[in-house]
Each structure stands twice: as structure tokens, then as C-alpha cells.
């Protein structure tokens, strides 16, 4: 075996330090487009979806003209919510706490029985909401390029997959006891397939699992050839920081891992199938089993990181190059702000 210089993994501190989590919230999750739902959840004006985006409660609502509007789910009076549930219908924008009412642009129109005029310009904090192939993304930063420009070459790469012809089938949600990067690290390498996913590895050629980027470290496409006669075709796509899809014959799953805090992450799967797809229940079961296996190993990794014995390890030059690119994106976003080098706060 030839000797190559090994690249170190991201040190443990990046997974545990509350200051680094706070930097990530502002320098990654506040500056990127993050998928928070699906357009089919918003068929009528007033329909909304609400989500915790790296600790920020946000919601997107269908407007009367068919467009989407998004706001922080926070009233400027005393931080009450505008919507309570993760999704539903609410015709107006009225705070659930004391009833202040806002117009469709989020401007205050009535401070109910307040006893004084509210300061002029009082409003909800508006966010950006844009869609791609039925996926609803939000962005907290007005200076980030529009979603389509942001996704760049990923869009052309995904053209070949007929994802917009599939119909929503079901959703699963898991609250994982791990930092979001532990799950992300696992997603962008196929090294663990034969050991963590024995059943899946009987269906795809796990040792030929390839993770390929096309020059943009924000995304990559994974393939594994299918063994004859088995239903998995094995195509996975990843887009930084936490969006991915899995394509299989007759359908797909959208998979995302939204951090809810430094040590907890929600793993959300949404399944879609063609009307004539076969073996739908078997495919969903296989995918859920794979997710359980990934969560099991990831939660153990998190425990070991928290135990304080591990500082950093080494990346496989054969299987973990995309993981190295992900770690570099994290370093680039975080390091200028570590230990008070600069203030990470960009969202008021
Ligand atoms: S917090 Fe919204 S009206 Fe009081
Ligand atoms: Fe896995």
C-alpha cells in the first residue's frame, strides 16, 4: 500500500461547542436556502407550514395571489406566535398572544385595545420563500442569491429524474440525539454501507458506491450499481447544508436533517411514488430500516464525542473525499468567527 498523507476529520469541538453551534446558525443556516416543506401542503390561500430552522421558528403561507410569503413566527409586541401548529390553515396574520393583526406584507394594521399607537413601521420580520420542483425553501438572508442560482449545476444534474411526476405518499420524522453534522458526515460517505447496512448491501454493490462532485463542494451525487433483479437503483443527491433525495425505481424519498439545537436534529423523510409504482410498502420499509441503522450508529458516535476521549480521526482517501469537502465548508464558515475573531450575528 502506498503511503498518502491523511486528512484529519473535523475536531470534536465543532460538534459540541455551543459557541460554534451559534456561529453555524448565523453563518450557515441563516445564509443558505433550507427546504422546510412541500408545495402540495399549501394548496389554498391561507394554508401554511411552520418549521424550526436551526432554532428560528419560521412559517410560509400561501397568499391570495398564489405566491408564497414567509416570516419569522414571532410578533414584535412580546414575541408571541402568529401560527401554532406545524401546518394548517389561517386566513389572516393575527398574533395568537394578544391579537395584533398584520397585513399580507407583515405590516401592523391593528394593535388590539393597546391603549396607544404602536411605533410606526412595526411589522413581522419577512423572509424569502422560493420553490424548486415542488420543494419549498426559505432563506433568512436577503443578500443570498435566488434559489435557482444558488442550486446552480445541481438543477441540470437532477433533470434526468422525473421527481415532479411522483405523488406524495407518506412522511416519517425522527428526533435524533446528535449534532446535525454527525448525520451529514454519514450521509456523504459510502464507506459504512457494508457494515451498517447489510440488507441494503445485498441489493446494491456497496463496495462500488461512488460519491461524485462536479466542482461545487455544496453538492454531490452518489451512485451504487444495482444487483440484478433487485428494486434499488441507488442514486442519492446531496445539497449543503441538509437537503438530499434518494431515487429508486418508480419513486423517490426527500431526506433532510434539520437541527433543532446543538445536540438534537430532526430527520424527515418524505416519500413520493409514480401512480403505477410496484412494491411501495417494501421500498418504504427498506428505506426506513436504513435510516434506523444510520441513526443508531450516529447516536453512538455522538455519545463518544461527548465522552471527551476523541479529538479527531482521519478520512479515507478512497471513500471519504466528499466528507472532507463538507468539513472544509464548515471550517470556512466557522473559523473566521471562532473565539471572538468576529461577531457571527447577522440576524436581528
Ligand atoms: S405578542 Fe403578539 S400581540 Fe402580544
Ligand atoms: Fe447509511
Topology, element by element:
Layout: H1 13-16, H2 18-29, E1 34-38, E2 47-53, E3 56-62, E4 68-72, E5 87-89, E6 93-94, E7 101-102, E8 108-110, E9 126-132, E10 135-139, H3 147-151, H4 153-158, E11 167-176, H5 180-187, H6 193-196, H7 198-203, E12 210-212, E13 219-223, E14 235-239, E15 243-248, E16 251-259, E17 265-273, H8 280-307, H9 321-334
Antiparallel strand pairs: 1-10, 2-3, 2-5, 3-4, 4-9, 6-7, 7-8, 9-10, 11-17, 12-13, 13-14, 14-15, 15-16, 16-17
Distinctive features:
348 residues; Rieske Iron-sulfur Protein; Naphthalene 1,2-dioxygenase Alpha Subunit, Chain A, domain 1; 17 strands; 27% strand; binds FE2/S2 (inorganic) cluster; binds fe (ii) ion
Write up this protein.
By secondary structure, the chain is an alpha+beta fold. Helices cover 25% and strands 27% of the residues. It is built from nine helices and 17 strands. Strands 1-10-9-4-3-2-5 form a seven-stranded antiparallel beta sheet, with no helix packed on it. A seven-stranded antiparallel beta sheet has the order 11-17-16-15-14-13-12. The chain binds FE2/S2 (inorganic) cluster and fe (ii) ion.
Helix residue percentage: 25-40%
State the order of secondary-structure elements, H for helix, E for strand.
HHEEEEEEEEEEHHEHHHEEEEEEHH
As a percent range, the share of strand residues is 25-35%
What is the fold-level CATH name, i.e. the topology of the largest domain? Naphthalene 1,2-dioxygenase Alpha Subunit, Chain A, domain 1
